[in-house]
Amino acid sequence: MSFNRYKDIIEEGDTVILYISPQAMYAIQAQSVIENRKGEKVENVMQTKYGALKISSLFGKPFGSKVSLSNGWAHVLYPTPELWTQTLPHRTQIIYTPDISLIMFMLELKPGSIVVESGTGSGSLTHSMAVRVKPTGHIYTYDFHEQRADQAQKEFKAHGLSENVTSQCRDVCQNGFSDDVTGKADAVFLDLPHPHLVVPFAIKALKPSEHARHAIVCTLYTDHFIDETTVIVVFLRQYHLISYFGADHFSENFNV
Predict the structure, then answer these.
(1) pTM for this one?
(2) What are the DSSP E strand ranges found in 11-153?
């Protein structure tokens, strides 16, 4: 299955969103058999507050179907980036759809855009950006945590996004971005505790065109916001960038 191309029928191996209510949605893998803690192969049965669901019963059903639980019912939905954000396994704090929409608007993303992102985290934003820039765009995303980077890459592949997303384990604060993105990016997004350390590397990643020289570098902060805001504004003005995005939807445009 793919986040890029819609399909009608659920098959084994697909990611499916089980919708019970707005407060109860689950991303499940459509696998008929799983391995238990003892290493034994057993039938895959999901337990919900409305009873059990045999995953094998989903095969052949159209996405959007109403399915019976042992004590109720639910719907099985095709996964979208917005639904994935609501149901993904949290490895870090994530960015939700309202902020994702603002970020992609500020980055001026469109089909064909090349984006550099750090850090990947749980991949919430990455999924939305990858679908936005398809079919010819690409997201280069970095995370310093090896396990997070590996798990994110597995999810991108399982969701049919590996052609549009490259995930790497790299400490960009210390080492910058990989050489293969130098001069390629239309936009850079930094979701890091100390993004000002990465701004010089972000400049190198941007395309050396007049338009890209004024490309947006967006940054998101979780702590030390006031002090780091001062630092990042100085960097943006020094490098002739025009927009900054921070905590609590703080944003400001600069005429440089």
Answers:
(1) 0.84
(2) 15-21, 24-29, 33-35, 41-43, 45-48, 51-54, 66-69, 72-77, 114-118, 138-143
